[in-house]
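Subject: for your reference before the review

Hello V.,

The reviewers asked for a structural picture of the protein, and I figured it would be easier to keep everything in one thread rather than splitting it across files. Below is the amino acid sequence we used in the manuscript, unchanged from the supplementary table.
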Amino acid sequence: MHGTGFNLLNAVLLFGAALIAGVMNAVAGGGSFIAFPTLLFTGVPPIPANATNTVALWTGLVCSGGAFRRHVNVPWLVLGVLTAASLAGGILGALLLLHTPAHTFMRVLPWLMLAATLLFVFGRHLVRPRETEMVHDTGATALLLATGFQFLVAIYGGYFGGGMGIVILAMLTAFGMANIHQMNALKIVLSTATNGVAVGIFVASRAVYWRQALVMILGAALGGYFGAHYSLRVPQKVVRWFVIAVGSSVTVYFFVRSYWLGG
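And here is what came back from the structure prediction:
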């Protein structure tokens, strides 16, 4: 059953899509919008495609995390609280995916991505200059708001996950982080936690198409590793504009899919 429609051409397409998605997730996020549609195109049903995509791209996140480990420059309290919110939200989102239809959420998704992209673009203008490094001066209110927002993002991440990295970057920008590489490092930690628990649930529920997943795991791992190392050599301004381009493209894609094509 889990091999339906799987052949050499599909394997090549899935490997290439996962490779590109791994690079995108390491640099900015949004890799699911390459990998997930490719799974659908090769004949995997939506819910298993979602689960398989999550399992494959999680491997890429893990591989890219090593390149950013020195850039995780946040207090342990902040890191621990945000990670706990990611784990809790990821569990809830994955369970929701397995027990509810995706149609309603797909109607809301374009508006979420539009808000996230705009927040990333204009977030710097919403904070005062003295707040530009949230990581070193985080008040209780700011941490509470960031934790609540991350919990909601993690629910979305466990449920679907496409563009989750962009939403996290938007949140970090709004709460005062300015260094794109530090933001990417924290994004990878939180995304890895969110998708890690979702992976466990999807595997236990036998929702994963493993032949497709294994091919994509290899591609995502290569893309994540090399994408992360390369992104550290790119000027922050270039990475920021890449995030904006991905966010805008993802937003247009889902508006077309949800409201024009009726998906």
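For the response letter, the relevant points are probably these. Residues 8-260 form one domain. Residues 114 and 251 are 6 Å apart (CA to CA).

Happy to draft the paragraph if you're swamped.

O.
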